[in-house]
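Study both lines:
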Amino acid sequence: MTDYILASLYLAAWILTLLWYQHRNRQIDAGTAIIASYIGYGIFSLLTLADDFFIYDELRLFPYIYLYVMLMIALTPTIYHHLSPPERIEPPRTRVLIVPCFIIILCGLLQLPGLVSNFSEGIVGLFLNADAGQEAYSEHIEEVRDAGSTINNLTAVLFNMVFDCGVFLTFYLLTLKKKNPLFITAMIIAVFIGMVIPVTKGQRGIVITCALTVVVGYLLFRRYMAPRINKVVQTVSAVAAIIIALPIGAITVSRFGERDGNIGVGGFINWYIGQGSIYFNNSVLNAGGIRYGDRTFNLFKRLIDPDTPKNYNERRAKYTKLEIDDYYFTTFVGDFVLDFGPVAAVVIFIVFNLYILTVIRPRDGTIKLHQLLAVYFTMCICMQGGMTLFMYSDGLNLKMVVFILLYVYLRYHDVLLQKFPLKKYEENR
């Protein structure tokens, strides 16, 4: 009974947070979506606690307090941005942004042949073969089991690297008065391809992560879009959601439908969605050691320490004494605590988010694109990892590299223009 009370109090804390936020904000935005998702995960936590099939350790109060505070620290830039929203976006005076857009479009189109060839076995097979989702997922696991030391598909790697920034740039292009419909359509198609490809491999998690990224991207830029564009985006998103939801449902049934006679698909769904805060509570703050950044900053650490594990198999073999590993979800907060310890993780969160707060302050009701990119990055971390783990870890550190490069270019390009202004420039507002 104590477990239900503590989990209910944690859920109630997020409900009260949402009520406070909506009272201050009075509109639906990315902050609303992120906090609402935490409420959803809390509800599923209660449902899986009620299932006797899954056994958890006794819950404690302090880990829930710690997790809530850390998530709120991570949410601070999002809350600050939306409670004092800028009226305008100052367009960057550069044409270089077209380069990452072309990379996204090109890499997306290069994925089409593989997508078409796998269509019958992948997507169609999900509805004709009850085991197709599990088989596709097992094949994918075998492919990535020893990944980390070689690149097998360069275009796929590039596409994954730029996907999140691609979503950001797609929605930014939709805010401009002078639009190139053909170019924007190509960007949207590329983003959609990025969401469909994982389905053919039996992967739900990546599809859901991509969808959550699109949600926060849209809600970040929605206030800057014309009403007609908003309606088009909502319609296209609804159609895309239906198209993707069907195979995702088929994958779920295929992977969980017959795993145990004592529990149905619903029980596994409750566990899958609701486990994050529970496993965090059970094991993260007293895991019996740390991973020294081997997951959250894997690629960066491998540059200075060749002995760093290259993939999750090697990492799990190295840290066998830990109470929990990345087989289970512990939220992105759990990833940082397991890598650096409870105290260091707090310092990292505070320093990082204070820095973001200092660089996103609008001036005279206007915000620059590099400032929005910084806000968007924190939103992606909160939205993507609230249920699962830190989604920019391991090989996906490359996504962080892309964010950093784009941010540095946009910010310091503006600085150079202020010192050496162009004689003639027509702003695209």
About this structure: Residues 227-256 form the longest helix (30 residues). The chain has a mean pLDDT of 88. The two ends are 58 Å apart (CA to CA). The CA atoms of residues 30 and 229 lie 18 Å apart.
